[in-house]
Design brief:
396 residues, alpha/beta, Aspartate Aminotransferase, domain 2, Aspartate Aminotransferase, domain 1, five-stranded mixed beta sheet, 13 helices, globular
């Protein structure tokens, strides 16, 4: 470890985010690494070409730009290696395909991101993999579900849309006792607030589309592995010819520089809105892990260093036939909150989530679930906007 690496290892998160993934001395003093567009790479002679005896050999194997982002992610994750893929969903599907084979059994948390469930129920099952969903609150009890052919346990904390917390350390310990790989979708917390590999996870995935980008204009996924699983992850990804582009990598690397301060603002504003929502009579429940009232709060408090800007609440409707009408009225009355998927950008978003796919973690009975992404706007303005939504819902 050189002096610079030692300094960064001991530095605070915002200092690290400002300096990881690039050494200006490598590029004539320029602060940001160059964007290197490449497919073909030339070799000085036939022997070097035959042995691939130089750092870069073809565009799919990396460039100085993509390597800079991978280095930064490795620093944040504490991982042995990272691959870049074109989307967050690809960040889930590539490791599934890299580690699973026909005849394997995989355990997937029931509160999983819906596109992940769709991939499992279509592609994985078609390839002969048995998929079983489990209760996100199962903890060490997952041992009862592990079969002789269980190969992988997929986790996501908090859960998608309803934000159930998982005891990642307990699940990882049990899974490893049975030789299973543990994978985690850590998009909500980012490595700033939670480092999966420190809690026994083998493969940490992230939709860099969200907070690392921060501007709702880039699609990219990262997959980081510990030393024991890095080579197989790399081999699987390379065999499929999947890679992230240098332009997108550059934008994500730039987004990382401000991710820490943006997350602080997202966290502060989201918690303020969540606490305000808890005091409203027209809200049945607020689904935010950082609230003491939330069932998984103690796990969040024990394991996580912070909370991001996305959470949900349940409109208090009680009449199922009015769920959709009231949810739509609420959403249509909003101005600052855009109606859109994804999250992690500077702008606030709202969506009526569909939980019909759940088999164990059923939808709340009190009313429709509205997911909020709290952006960088002023909290007072966002509250006024939400009040317009509540008034419209009440009129239905």
């Amino acid at each position: 470890m050189n002096d610079r690496e030692k300094l960064l290892a001991e530095a605070g998160i915002n200092t690290r985010l400002s300096h990881i993934g690039n050494d200006p001395a490598d590029f004539h003093g320029f602060v940001n690494p160059p964007v290197v567009h490449a497919s073909t790479v030339l070799f000085p002679n036939a022997r070097t070409m035959e042995t691939r005896g130089q750092k870069y050999s073809y565009g799919t194997r990396g460039t100085p730009t993509t390597d800079a982002l991978c280095d930064a992610i490795n620093e944040l994750e504490g991982s042995a290696g990272t691959i870049l893929v074109p989307s967050g969903l690809a960040a889930v599907s590539v490791p599934f395909l890299s580690f699973l084979a026909a005849g394997d059994h995989v355990l997937v948390v029931d509160s999983v991101y819906f596109p992940t469930r769709n991939f499992c129920d279509t592609m994985l099952t078609r390839l002969g993999v048995t998929v079983e969903y489990y209760d996100p609150m199962i903890g060490a009890g997952i041992e009862a579900l592990i079969r002789p052919n269980t190969r992988l346990v997929h986790t996501e904390a908090p859960g998608s849309n309803t934000f159930e917390m998982q005891d990642i350390a307990a699940i990882s310990a049990v899974a490893h006792q049975h030789g299973c790989i543990v994978m985690m979708d850590n998009t909500w917390a980012t490595p700033v607030f939670f480092r999966p590999l420190d809690f026994g996870v083998d493969i940490s995935i992230h939709a860099a589309t969200k907070y690392p980008s921060g501007h709702s204009d880039v699609l990219l996924g990262t997959v980081s592995a510990n030393a024991a699983h890095w080579q197989q992850l790399w081999d699987g990804n390379f065999a499929m010819g999947i890679c992230g582009s240098p332009d997108d990598s550059y934008q994500i690397l730039r987004g990382l520089r401000t991710m820490g301060v943006r997350l602080e603002r997202h966290q502060e504003s989201a918690l303020a809105i969540a606490q305000w929502l808890e005091g409203r009579d027209d809200v049945a429940r607020v689904l935010h892990p950082a609230l003491p009232s939330f069932p998984g709060h103690e796990i969040w408090k024990r394991d996580f260093k912070g909370a991001s800007g996305i959470f949900s609440f349940v409109l208090d409707v009680r009449s199922p036939e009015k769920f959709k009408a009231k949810a739509h009225a609420f959403l249509d009355a909003l101005s600052y909150f855009g109606l859109g998927y994804s999250w992690g950008g500077f702008e606030s978003l709202a969506v009526h989530v569909n939980l019909a796919d759940r088999t164990i973690s059923k939808a709340p009975a009190e009313g429709p679930v509205i997911r909020l992404q709290i952006g960088l706007e002023d909290v007072a303005d966002l509250r006024k906007d939400l009040e317009r939504g509540f008034a419209a819902a009440a009129a239905v």
